[in-house]
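My main concern about presentation is that the manuscript never shows what a single data entry looks like. The format is easy to grasp once an entry is in front of the reader. For illustration, here is how one protein appears when written out as sequence plus structure tokens:
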Amino acid sequence: MRRAQILSALMLALLVFAAVPPASAQQVPLQDKPFAEHKIVLQLSDGDARKQALVLSVANNLLKAYAPDKIALEVVTFGPGIDLLLSGSERRKQVESLIAQGVRFDICLNTVDTIERETGKRPEFIPAATPVQVGVGQILFLAENGYTVVRP
């Protein structure tokens, strides 16, 4: 009889667990760009200075080609790619200039949390950067909402 009670309790727990939807990562709202004809997300997961320069160059070129109000452009950084958005970045002025032109730069908080856990110090990032909990989750969210993913 005891075995039947345990099995019943396990089945009930499984049913309850299956009925609860998985928690989804919090996403920041989509950019409010009603006249955007193109939506692009640039992925940066590399700490290499050349890759960072390339991402910034691509963003600049897209703004020139389509005008800031005709393109929704988002750069999502995670892993070593967040180096671009740290307060001490040598490319900070370029990033802030692009933000002023309507480009959104997202920084993965999972990466920030990992760095803090491993070093004991939370990295400081550019205040204008948009924190997202999961960088890859943000890319997926944008792709599901009509953005084209580009990894320069």
Remarks:
- The chain has a mean pLDDT of 87.
- The first helix runs from residue 2 to 19.
- The chain has five helices and five strands.
- The chain has one domain: 38-150.
